[in-house]
Amino acid sequence: MAPGARVLLLYGGGSIKRNGVYDQVLATLDSCEVTEFGGIEVNPHYETVLKAAGLAREVASDIILAVGGGSVIDAAKFLGSAIAAENSDPWDEFAAGRYPEKIVPVGCVLTLPATGSESNAVSVISSVTRDLKIPFANEAARPVFAIMDPSTMASLDRRQLGNAVVDAFTHVVEQYLTLPGNTPVQYGYSEVLLRTLIEWGPKLLKENSPDARENVMWAANQALNGLIGMGVRQDWSTHMIGHAITALYGIDHARTLSLVMPSLLRFKIRSKQEMLARYARNVWNVQADDDRIAAEQGIAATEDFFRRMGLPVKSSDVAPTKISADDIVAHLERAGQVQLGEMADISAKEVREIMAAVT
User: Fold this and answer.
1) What digits encode the pLDDT tens for the residues 258-275?
2) ∠ at Cα 295 (290, 299), nearest 5°?
3) Model confidence, pTM
């Protein structure tokens, strides 16, 4: 950071002050003018980001430095655009893809791997007043640098670690288990990432060793930096349904994904059968010759992996919370997400059937 730069330091609930990262960052920024804004939520609130934007304008911030996990980095990327917006309430403009031409740049120090937010252009933001959680994509908001130090994962608990692994895993699946195409490099790399998470995820839970932290952090980054999605049709229906569940019931993002994905894959097994069979054989070493049987075994292995990582796969696993398919559909409709999936063939009726299978 250039000497004298006006830095807005953005962070969450304060864990960086307990694990020593905060002191390291401030020491690095000793020649800069630092203004702090803490309290970014686990699912970052639009209303909180607007408060940060007001502060950033007041001090004329040159750059935003996000220190934390995906939620803080998501907030920072949205914030970079919000600071520069002429409208004080730019939600609708941003949702329509209309962003300022020039935004405040973002850098980040990653402390919790999962989302790959440190290397992509997407922010997932919740609006309390609108009761919505939706993704925003602005290529200009892609961080200009990211510092990834696996040692920061040493203080994370098992729930956080399990969530991180499953979140990264589903990011790969949403780009890989779609329509077959002429993208062997992307498919091969996706399979390597999935096998890496399957091998090192349980080790991370068991021993939280430096090797496990390094491999999971790097796999999570590669899962959603844009590389494996180049030239392929992408799904993201599990994520859109999961966002609705988090917005409505406050369930951890990754845990909504583990709830939805196995049932969604079973629901879509016919159209996804070719790639599911490949996935089963190349990732899970399934030996079945019949594609349908292989696909079913691949989904079962996925569900078992989620359980081994300590995440729910059925609605009974999140009791006493009761999930309503009608409420999920209503959220998706308010968000304008009425046709989901790589073929846009998942609408309200299909969402209800998928959620019935989660029960």
Assistant:
1) 999 999 999 999 999 999
2) 150
3) 0.94
Query: Quick one: pLDDT at residue 185?
Result: 97
3-state per-residue secondary structure call for the chain: CCCCCEEEEECCCCHHHHCCHHHHHHHHCCCCEEEEECCCCCCCEHHHHHHHHHHHHHHCCCEEEEEECHHHHHHHHHHHHHHHCCCCCCHHHHHCCCCCCCCCCEEEEECCCCCCHHHCCEEEEEECCCCEEEEEECHHHCCCEEEECHHHHHHCCHHHHHHHHHHHHHHHHHHHCCCCCCCHHHHHHHHHHHHHHHHHHHHHHHHCCHHHHHHHHHHHHHHCCCCCCCCCCCCCHHHHHHHHHHHHHCCCHHHHHHHHHHHHHHHCCCCCHHHHHHHHHHHHCCCCCCHHHHHHHHHHHHHHHHHHCCCCCCHHHHCCCCCCHHHHHHHHHHCCCCCECCCCCECHHHHHHHHHHHC
